[in-house]
């Protein structure tokens, strides 16, 4: 049998997973749908809908539609309940997947991963409907190990495909403990390597104990400490005791300026663990729309990778929007590759080339 598929597509992976689990031999033929690979005359002879997955059986017959394919391939196996009522319950979930889950959860991911949209640009209606589907799954999975009772079935294969990668499309799984437990169980059955979002969830939990408040004069030393604590900052800042007066003078200017907000993230004990400055820049261009400018975003070294930077940036974006800004932008040094990746994950797009004259 040949499987025509895209190895990054959940619909196609359903077919691969079932074949692997049942030890069915196949040849995978990779099709690049974004380059029209599923719309060639040759492909359309196999599947007039022009979609993957499509399988070609050894006798030359073809079959399309992921759920129909896996249902055919798994006939007689333990992936389909032998009890007809249970089998119908499995079908019900698989129809629901195509009708009420995949069109939202998979399409959010498609917009982000295939079309390269920032998470913030994904159609909000899709996001809303995606969460409705996940809410429904969560409620059901809170009371059962797999979708149809205690036995793993094709319903789990079908719904696992896009649920486990929902975060690629900006749908957060942190709020769904039953779904996360079920994903781990289903991945174990299918011998799949676990998806990488558990770290994201751990990070979010820690970030939840953080509060963000306006910086005070007594925070200045901690802020300068964080600014100095990286390769570029260490050459730029002066950490002395007492701190050079210029930092306090600058802080006083920032504090007086109504368009500037210097904020700090503090942990449960009140220790400063992050900072950020938001400048709201009024301007005539673009019909007089203000711009939000993010600067000096820092997280204390021992607190990195815990979602604190994300929380700070999200705070600033919300604040800028509330102050009527039409956009938020930032400059990041071209050598800060990790920072660029971080901002892209939060929805920022590479848009300008920065230029500087230093005095
Ligand atoms: N309902 C179909 C959906 C198939 C589908 O949307 N395939 C996408 C990839 S995930 C595709 O082939 N898109 C290319 C195109 O439509 O041209 C299934 O479950 O197999």
Automatic annotation (TrEMBL):
- Domain GST C-terminal, by residue range, is 83-207
| Location of the GST N-terminal domain | 1-81
Domain of life of the source: Bacteria
Occurrences of domain N-acetyltransferase (ranges): 210-359
Q: Show the PANTHER family listed in the entry.
A: GLUTATHIONE S-TRANSFERASE-RELATED (PTHR44051), HYPOTHETICAL GLUTATHIONE S-TRANSFERASE LIKE PROTEIN (PTHR44051:SF2)
Protein name in UniProt: Glutathione S-transferase/ribosomal protein S18 acetylase RimI-like enzyme
